[in-house]
Design a protein that fits this description.
alpha/beta, six-stranded parallel β-sheet
Length: about 350
């Protein structure tokens, strides 16, 4: 029998990040093709002080009115981003339907930012019936020893399934970065190596605290292109045009943009994080240790030069291996596996 599922998340688009939480929306839409799914997300979301102070009380009241106090009934609640979003699922369980099963997908900072785990955090973990982690190392760091836990990609948009294989000579962008422009994502590292990349076309896509600094640097580096957040279709074209994708994050639990790039036949150079180790392999030649910042910059520049200087056959082999990995992360494939977990509950 088809179960009614409610997917809830504290992630949602806002003016400064219009595509935030899009991967959760994509997953919900893929699941909706197969069963009854409703979706609740943080709709009141911006960067104002008022929003930062009141967004969670508003989120809770919206949820209370829309689901706890309504006649809608759900068999499974799937929480994306464990804490504090888990409290919404618990409110439904305690006040509306005690038999509801709770599935949680942890994405990274919902574990990283709460260590050491508080007693309350640990207590909430006890109500979860199925855990999903976006990387094996994230699973190890989690506050659970439950056998009901799996490692599963959050899923990339299905549009990447028909990406075209372009040869390196057909690509007009040397280096591409897509993501949030902050220190955790390593934007200071990217800026530090700009003087050594004057002969390379670098495209940076995203928004965040470092955007103003990048805009100032454009006058010094005409090879630097800046683009606002893009749709999946627009990103597919950018990935296909790029010879190399860069991920220089300090912490990255999975990094779907790396998967998207590989799906589009674009090789990735990345710093060693949980996410890059999961996708490229911890011993990959194209992963860089994060011990010393000066050495990191040197190694990053060396890897870029080596990648762009590979023989055509070696470069094509790298394109093919990344693409093969990424195919298993397409959202429709992920949705099938999630539905199997639902059915098992």
């Amino acid at each position: 029998m088809t179960k009614a599922v409610l997917i809830i998340t504290n992630m949602g688009p806002k003016p400064s990040a219009p595509f935030q939480g899009q991967f959760v929306t994509n997953q919900m839409l893929a699941l909706k093709k197969r069963q009854t799914v409703s979706y609740f997300f943080m709709s009141w979301h911006n960067d104002s002080l008022l929003n930062r102070l009141l967004k969670y009380p508003v989120l809770f009241l919206q949820f209370l009115w829309s689901y706890v106090l309504s006649r809608k009934s759900f068999d499974i609640i799937h929480v994306h981003f464990f804490y504090p979003t888990i409290w919404l699922a618990l409110a439904y369980k305690w006040l509306r339907k005690p038999s509801v099963k709770i599935v949680v997908t942890c994405h990274g900072s919902d574990i990283y930012h709460y260590q050491p785990f508080s007693t309350l955090y640990r207590w909430c973990c006890g109500f979860v019936n199925q855990w999903i982690f976006t990387s094996a190392k994230l699973q190890v760091k989690a506050c659970t020893a439950s056998p009901k836990s799996v490692v599963l990609s959050a899923g990339i948009a299905q549009t990447y399934a028909d990406a075209k294989l372009l040869s390196r000579s057909e690509k007009d962008i040397d280096l591409l970065y897509v993501g949030y422009l902050d220190k955790n994502k390593g934007m200071d590292r990217l800026i530090a190596i700009l003087p050594e990349l004057k002969d390379k076309t670098l495209c940076v896509v995203g928004a965040g605290p470092y955007l103003a600094q990048f805009e100032q640097l454009k006058s010094l580096y005409p090879n630097l292109q800046l683009l606002a957040g893009q749709s999946a279709e627009q990103l597919k074209l950018l990935y296909q045009r790029s010879k190399c994708f860069l991920s220089v994050s300090r912490n990255e639990s999975f990094g779907l943009v790396m998967t998207e790039a590989m799906a589009c036949y674009t090789p990735v150079i990345a710093t060693l994080t949980d996410g890059s180790a999961e996708q490229l392999g911890a011993d990959s030649y194209w992963i860089i240790e994060q011990s010393d910042e000066h050495l990191l910059a040197q190694h990053l520049l060396k890897k870029i030069q080596q990648l762009l200087s590979l023989s055509d056959s070696d470069y094509t082999a790298l394109q093919q291996s990344g693409h093969q990995y990424a195919r298993d992360c397409l959202v429709d494939s992920v949705a099938v596996k999630i539905q199997q977990l639902y059915n098992a509950l």
